[in-house]
Prior knowledge:
This protein has 334 residues and is α/β, with parallel strands linked by helices.
Amino acid sequence: MCWGFLFYQSPYTASDISYNISMKPIVLCGPTASGKTELALELARQTGGMIISADSRQVYKRLTIGTAKPQGVWQNGQYLVDGIAYHLVDFLEVTDIFNAGDFCTRVHSLTQQDPQIPLIFAGGTGMYLHAYFVGMDDLPASTPQSRKQLEQLLQQYGKEGLHQLLRQKDPLSATQIPVGNVQRTMRALELYLLTGKPASELKSGQFFKLPNPAESHWVYLDWARDVLAERINTRTKQIFPGMCAEARQLLLEGFSSQTPALKSLGYPQAIECIRGTLSSENALEKITTLTRQYAKRQRTWFNRYTQAQRIALNAHADFEPKKLAQAILACANR
């Protein structure tokens, strides 16, 4: 583990590192708006590697601005950002569902194509990264019927009532899932509906294991909370008009607001704004609040990875991708 490396002067040049880099995948994690994409691109430049996105919403076509998807072009079957292969973004139809199992399957396929190329994982969907590097229990997949039933229960009882139902069916899971985490509550209830058994009985404990540091090098971007809040505020203001435009176009084409892609963070509020049930000011404020809450949950999730190289970022000026990439590579090679 490397600490305090904002003051660390790497003995390597970028070209030196590209020849000496360990073949262990580098995993960039951290909350939304923390600069993972920019840093991943710099690491790829210095290593000649490819990037694998671990973002559950950037997978969708046509949701680009509102998901802060890196701007790229499709060329010869690859999504390229500044000429760098950036995988698992911009490939899924808005009506499709993508999960951790799908992520693992696609990553395994990508890594088999060229086992020697350095891999840089970047994204804030912790469940995807955990599933690939640690493993997850083989649980039944969602079905349209089960999701519809749970959506109806959510509308009927609200998130508190839904959590109360979970306490009745699976008390142990209910103690581990916050009332406000609707998605995890619904998934635990869904497992009960599909199997007749509490989710807590179906899980083997993989959830609580840590990645093997000999097999991957994890990096956590640890921003000061007030500075991260500023970054979130700024980015949300920047992407809100584009988010509304993307949602409006899909609605005009006949897609429902319940379309999987349109349930992505911020889009439901953009739709309310489009329909006139929420002012643009209130929609923007609500999206900003929801994004900060999401970032808090991400920090909680990624704090479990105690073996990660932690980058302390206390001011905007601390984020210097070239220097940080060199420090990361020097640490990964130890």
